[in-house]
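Format notes (please read before filing issues)

Several people have asked whether sequences and structure tokens are stored in separate files. They are not. Every record keeps both together, in the order shown below: the sequence lines, then the token lines. Line labels are part of the format and must not be stripped during preprocessing.
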Amino acid sequence: MKNRIKTFVFIILSGLFLASCDSYLDVVPDNIATIDNAFTDRIQAEKFLYGLYSYLPLAGHVQQDQGRFDDLTWAGRTVIFQGPTPYPLYVLRDGNRATAPYCNNWEGLQGGIALFQAIRDCNLFLEKIDQPRDLYPFERIRWVGEAKFLKAYYHFLLLQQYGPIPIIDVNLPVSASDESVMVERLPVDIVFDYIIGLLDEAASVLPLKIEDIAIEMGRITMCTALAVKAKVAVAAASPLFNGNTTYSSFTNRQGQPFFSDYSHEKWAKAVVACKEAIEFCHDAEHGLYEYAGETDMSPETKKIVQVGRIITDKWNKEHIWGIAWRTGGGTGAGLDSWTLAALSTDHNAFVRGVINPTMKAAEMFYSKNGVPIEEDKFYDYDNRYETVLTSADDSKFVQTGIQTAGLHLNREYRFYGSMAFDGGWWYGIGRYNEDNQWPVNARSGQISGQRGLERYSCTSFFIKKFVSMLCSFNSINFVYIRSNYPIFRMADLYLLYAEALNEYLDAPNGDVWEYVNLVRERAGLESVQNAWTNYSKYPDKYTSKSDMRDIIRRERSIELMFEGHRLFDLRRWDLSTTELTGPVRGWNYLENAVDDFYQVITVDNVLYTDRDIFTPIRTSELAKNSNLIQNPGW
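Then the structure lines:
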């Protein structure tokens, strides 16, 4: 066991895998006989650097993106899931297990990535990068910054998944003692400070933005490092990690608590980090993307289509950091085909449509007045499940002259751009006349409905925002569009800043409202002040710190819906056990008649408890290292 542990600490795995197929990340190390050979010259060292990127979890991937499933996104038990095993869904739906944890990023098992191995590879790179004699000094400086960023980011991914973790700052030699390789978990404040320090070091030497956009898009920039630092700082200040009394008795073997008392100063640091990131991102010309639309496109359709273009318009100015994504495969691993509804009989062979919005997601979006539907004085909330006959006034949003639920009408643009539903429209994919869009008919036996054991929605809702409107069908296959998946975008950063500032201040002020309003204005909504004053049952809600907190959290959930952020947002807000527990609901997809279909049914039930917040360390790992403490409840 001694030799095994020491070897694992020191030796890098060769033959690093890589999934991207159309970017700089295509270059990977060959099988290398010795570590020193990897740094004999610039070319080999650059391959090793790209190998460090290969450990990044594939954003949007149903197997590696742990945020892919939450209370707003689901896949049914009865649906045949075609593709990689959806381990994140299993965690939420069935719970984890300590003997063989799903999404095991500690070791790289059960859908996980070996992130500690990734950190050790980063350390090795930093130790050896002075060896290549043909490497320009400016290149070495930049590469060191990239490696430090990745090292920090991999620590952060482990921290938000497992809570207190060991810090692997340097690799140990083979001659290290047994005691030194028996790493210990450290208090979360120490880990957060370490990560932020690394990100500062990285940001100080990285370029502000990518200059060679033809081959370097996706590489780390100063803006990437500062944006991630802002996210880390907000997480450190959030209720899960800042004064959480649930973990007051969670200590190491010396009795030192892993979680500290509440510190308001953490929110001050988060405010500074967010503001700094925003300013540098603006200097790099990042901002909110707005879709210009076609000359004959109505303002309504433009706002609806814009929701998806924010995601699928490749490397647009809103994307602070992304990962190369070939829709239908590659990095995105078919996220569009897993969410796309069948829109004609010819489409059924090419779409899966098994990752679906829940009824909770449909109800999360605002009314057309920009306030929650349960608060809107003018929205018929009590009768939202009743069917109504659509009219010509609804034609930009739903098919006319049909029966559909009141829930589908009089909603904000992001609702129509993010979700598809029975009676709705789907723009693009070969149809670019807004008066002749694809109709979505999702009742049982219909084109978009349940017609077998696969390729249908268990809630009768579909996700639209990941499918580029430029995709198309032909008689042979589905023609995908290469794009990138945004890991971090400006709307996310603006809302993090508003959240941090609201938490730091005694009451919200103009800056808090301003950054929420920037996101709302782009979405076609009135300001928070005007919307709540004019339409809400609670016109003063935005003036209260606690109520403004709820507004910001809902705005994040709507703007970033289905993008993989909400699960970790709920966790850091310490709301996951209440928000994730309960029924998963949708329309009755097994029925065809209107009155039968428009009945809310429960398609699944979730029990999410305190022990589910942090992933368990595999029990066999605990047996190898007596210094490791298992997470509470496991």
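For reference, the curators noted about this record: Residues 1-33, 326-333 have pLDDT under 50 and may be disordered. Residues 137-162 form the longest helix (26 residues).
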